[in-house]
Predict the structure.
Amino acid sequence: MMMKRVASLFLLFMLAGCSTSQDAPQQKAQKGKVSPERSLNMEQQCKEQAAHRYNTGAQKIDVTAFERFQGSYELRGHTARKEGFVCSFDADGQFLHLSMR
């Protein structure tokens, strides 16, 4: 009797787990308001970091995309030689790192 009850509870938990299991949605960029001053500051920092990394002038760096994620920002761009990069910033707009792509 006890074994039957344990088996029934186990089956119930298995079914409950299957019914609530869903694929987690992918994190997508959020369309939110970022102050113009903050976005320009992040763009300038990104250009300066990329210019330093690629040994070129900031005027030869193009930032082509600005995405906001939960708790962070990413700016994508490329150099005049078409070398791609991504600058990452935290939620407060502080520079985190530059990734080459």
Observations:
- The two ends are 63 Å apart (CA to CA).
